[in-house]
Known about the structure:
This protein is mainly α. Helix content is 45%, strand content 11%. It contains 15 helices and eight strands. Strands 1-2-3 form a three-stranded antiparallel sheet. It has a three-stranded antiparallel sheet with strand order 4-5-8, with no helix packed on it. Helix 8 (214-224) crosses helix 12 (352-365) and helix 13 (370-377) packs across helix 14.
Amino acid sequence: MPRKLKNIEKKTGRRGNNEGSIYQRKDGRWCAQVTVGYRDNGKAIIKYAYGSSRQEVAKKLAKFTNEVFENGYTAFAPSDTKMFYPMLEDWFFTFKEPVIGSATSEKLRNFIKNHIKPEFGNLEVHQVDLFRLQRFFNGLSKKGICLQSIKHIKQLLNQFFEQYLMKQGLVKENPLESVKIRSNERDDNDRDNLALSPELRTVVLSKLEAEPVLKPILTVFMLTGMRPGELIALKWRDVDFEKSSISIRLAASREIEFDDDGNVKERRQIISNTKTVLSVRSFKTADNVMLCLQDWMDYLKQQEAKTGIDFTSADCYVFSTRKGEMRGYSGLRSMLGRFLVNNNLEGYGINLYTFRHTFATMLLEERENPKIVSELMGHSKVLTTLSIYSHVISKSVYESTAKTLDRAYQCLLPEKEKTDKPCTGSSALIPLQIDRSFDSNSLNFRQF
């Protein structure tokens, strides 16, 4: 007698036409794809969507399939279709985002969402040519987008072309190399306002005498050139009073968590590595900084006696809150804002980074070696320092250079044609001793 067959559950087959598919890539990101049309040669046109979760790409896939059901297949598409924006998005999340911080990622995501996608979202790679890119950047300037943001957008697109499109053989050359960015006069003039003017430095320092907490913070900012995140993370173990030195090892930074749609879900402050490898540095600092920090420690010890909270142990933050906890960037910014308003200084564009810029500007005004300034600032390249403070260097040396050339020229004239200007010999041809030997550990800022 034949045996009765058991009920066997039917295995799920392939998805039906137009339903698309979702799968996870080896790099951990999810990908969705659906056929949206056919080329003249009968090959399918596949549209892709990428995301950090299955739910994210499922939403995008549903949108694609609905468009197909409502509008039908794309009637025509040129052969070898390669959509620019999906490839940019895939490259960004696969190669770019893993090597940058979350704050930088947020900034670049906004550039992509607000500027790049609206312009190039429906274009193929071959359509994004030099003329379209040049018109795009011209438009950003006309909209009043700040020059620094425009440069960041260009750098992002340049990396995409160099690191992906060219290596994949999708384009033969990088059109970004020929794109010219128009410098807004506003941005160029703003460079003069990066730092406090000599007159404003005196005013700010005098007003700080009535600020027992803010005075040491801004003094250390202005005489060390630390970044805000580096100052927030500074601990007493990093301050050596015997050697009059400060060590920068870590920095406070913002960690941002995004939801499936790329929106900011949560922001939190963490202690992490410094911005660059060269940002880790130790240097002998100004006597005034050490005196200021010693006064600040004495003040904190008085607070310890009143509150019982530890403020001065080696592992305590130098500029902690009243509860002995790490101070936040927003808290520092609020303190400075109140100080500016109370002293009628809010119209000068002063922010926390103003004091870092003032540090570099004072050194360059005194004709310090730009290489040394770069090391003290923690810049990865001296070219960074030169590009930011070129206006300071040029203003401070042009007058001296002109006088030097006058003296050098006098030495070349016949005796009867010489004026009363002294001839200083061949040394007059060297206005700046840029290559002189210098030990950064002996740096002293007493002139400040």
